[in-house]
Design a protein that fits this description.
Length: 384
Amino acid sequence: MQLTDRVRQVKIFLVTAAALICAISLLWSHLLVRDLQSEERVRMEIWAEAMRSLNQADEQTDLALVLTVLNGNNTIPVVVLDQYGELQTFRNIRISADNQADSLAYLQEQASMMRADNNVIRLNLGDNEFMEICYDESTMIKRLAAYPYIQLGIVLVFAVVAIVALLSSKRAEQNKVWVGLSKETAHQLGTPISSLMAWTQMLRETYPDDALLPEMDKDVERLQMIAERFSKIGSLPELRPENLNEVIERVGIYIARRAGNRVTLTTRLPEQPIYANMSAPLFEWVVENLCKNAVDAMEGAGSIVITASEESTRYVVEVADTGKGIAKNHFRNVFQPGFTTKRRGWGLGLSLAKRIVEDYHRGRIFVKQSELGHGTTFRIELRK
C-alpha cells in the first residue's frame, strides 16, 4: 500500500507540474500579446493623426510624410467613418465573393464589431465634425494569441499517445508475467499431484475401508482444479452455459469447511437455475477469493452472504461480509496489483479476479458499498 501511495504522489506531482507549465506558458503569451496590442494602439493613433493631417491639408501642406504613414499600414484592418456613421474608407479588409454584392453593409458590420471590442479612435476635426477610426487586431497578433493553445493541444495529443503506448506496453509486460507465473505454477503442481494420485491409489488398495481416503481424494481433486485454473491463465477460456447456482453452492461448501465455526456463510439463490456463459473453474476462483478476503477481513469471526440473481440484461453475484470495511478512497485501488491491507500476502488476488471477470468474461467487478467497521459488498456483473 505504501508503494501505491508513493506512485499516486508522483502522479499528483507530475500533473501539478504540467498544469503549472501550461499556466506559465499561457500567462507569458498573454503578456506578450497585450504588449503587442498596446504597440498597435500607438501605431493606430499615429495613423489617425495622419488621417487628420490629410483631411485638413491645404496647398502648402507637405503630404509626403502623411502618405508614407498611411500607406505603411499593411497589417491592421481599418474602417474610417464620418460623424454620421457613413463609410469614408477602409484598409486591409478582405471582402469575400459572398459579400461583394453588399460590401457596404459588410464593412459597416465589421466597424460595429470593432466598436464592440473598444478598438476605436475618435478624431475631432472642428466645427462639430469628427471621424471614427475603427480597427481590429492584426493577423499576426491573432495567430500569436492562438499559438499557445495550438501548441498545448499538440503536446497534449502527443502526451496522450505516449501514455497510451506506455500503458499498453506495461499491460503487455504484466500479461507476460501473469502468464509465465501461472504456467510455471501449473507445471510445478503437476508432478506432486501425479505423485499424490499414485499414493492415494496405493493406499486405497492397501486400506480399502479407510474413512480418510475419500477426503484425500477430494483434496487431490482440489489441487487438480487449482492447477487447471493456473493453466487457463493467458489463454482465452472456453465459455459455456453453467448453472450459476451450482457454482455458488460449490464455493459455499468449500469455504464453509475451511472458514471455521466462527464464520457463518449463507447463500441466497433463486429457485430457478441461472445459466450463464462462463468458465466455471475460473469463476469459482473469483468467488472463492472474495470469500477468503472476507474471512481475513473479519479476522475469522463474522458472516458472509453470497447472493445470485438475474436481471434484465445481466447476471449478478454479490459477496457481502461483516469485516472491517474499505475506505472509499481505496475502492479502485483494491484491484491494483500489490495493494493489500494484510500483513501477509502479495496483493494479487483481487487483481487476478478483476482480470478473470473483465478480460475473460467481459463483465464487471467492483466494490458496491463498504463502511469502515461494518463490512464490504463486492458485486460481479456478467452480461447475458
